[in-house]
Specification:
Number of helices: 3
Radius of gyration: 31 Å
Number of strands: 0
Distance between the termini: 80 Å
Helix content: 55-70%
Largest sheet: none
Structural class: mainly alpha
Number of domains: 1
Strand content: under 5%
């Protein structure tokens, strides 16, 4: 009779957070809200200009119908009103989509700026408190990628100077 083959138990599943998963929605709220506000102000200005052009276009078509002595109940005016209504709906939905996209992109972009600054600030606090720290690193796609290298060089030079002072 053959012995049954013993198989090791399967490891339990571990729930690992992805490294790019955000823990904090706004790292630096005043800065990030201001950035998103600027982006929304630009989007609002563009939206108002486009809506003004849209309104002017349909007003001009309406005036052409009146100048052509068409009766007010002519199908041309009903057609214009129908098209204007459809365009208003399209404009409203596309504006909502653009606002959502700009807020999302503004949040993402502001994280790439505020994250490194926050990380740098926390690093400085630990240096001031006298803690020995590993070299400063930012995330792969963050802005200001040159800052950690310069700061790490400076700290390394300061450590060398302290060692020289101890020896002397």
């Amino acid at each position: 009779m053959e012995k049954p083959i013993k198989t090791p138990p399967l490891p339990k599943a571990k729930f690992v957070k992805k490294s790019n998963q955000r823990k904090v929605f706004l790292i630096n709220p005043p800065f990030q809200i201001r950035i998103i506000g600027y982006m929304l102000a630009i989007a609002s200005t563009v939206t108002v200009i486009y809506y003004g052009a849209h309104s002017y276009f349909f007003w001009k078509l309406h005036q052409l119908g009146l100048d052509s002595k068409l009766p007010v109940n002519h199908i041309y005016f009903r057609f214009l009103e129908n098209q204007n209504s459809k365009m208003n709906s399209i404009f409203m939905y596309s504006t909502i989509l653009v606002v959502l996209a700009i807020c999302s992109w503004g949040l993402f972009l502001s994280h790439r700026i505020a994250g490194p600054i926050h990380h740098l600030k926390e690093h400085f606090k630990k240096i001031v408190s006298g803690q020995k720290l590993p070299p400063l690193k930012f995330r792969k796609n963050d802005f200001f990628m040159e800052v950690p290298d310069i700061l790490n060089q400076y700290i390394g030079q300061q450590d060398k100077n302290k060692e020289k002072d101890k020896v002397a």
